[in-house]
Amino acid sequence: DGGITQSPKYLFRKEGQNVTLSCEQNLNHDAMYWYRQDPGQGLRLIYYSQIVNDFQKGDIAEGYSVSREKKESFPLTVTSAQKNPTAFYLCASGQRNTMGYTFGSGTRLTVV
Amino acid sequence: LAKTTQPISMDSYEGQEVNITCSHNNIATNDYITWYQQFPSQGPRFIIQGYKTKVTNEVASLFIPADRKSSTLSLPRVSLSDTAVYYCLVGNNAGNMLTFGGGTRLMVKP
Asked: Is some CB atom of chain A closer than 8 A to the CB atom of B30?
């Protein structure tokens, strides 16, 4: 079945450490997105990519970095510069002329 | 960018029809309107998408007036399992920046 896989589902890290969240899709979608969700809040866009080797900052990019070396992969690194990294992170993908966007099941990051 | 505005929350009872309206005054000509459902600690799930007039599938209907500045998601005969947050999203699936609104928290009571 086609879809998006985010791993791991739960992640714990010590404060000051960088951590990378994985997002892989086999839908052949050109566009991929990363969102952050805090408890009881909506989704906020961190980074997005329209095509391989290209990406743009979203609303809250500070403290995060991404790469898009392959069409199917869009990893997100949460750096030590992110002041409050504990959150639920969601990855999504989309393609022109297809129905809607597909979301992964999310990674819950806890920094202690 | 087409921003969206939705009611923060709504309450309903089992078996009732629920209508959630979303405002998107700056919608672009090539934008579609898509609604998602999200349960706690899960990714949003696609419900329905439309461009104009009315779209219906097995779970919902989407009503879009001629000016496309708003849309209404209609959930027929809701059940307790429909308690979730519902998001309206406007975009063209082409990789442009997608911004979610705050969503509508629907509570279905017995």
From this structure: no
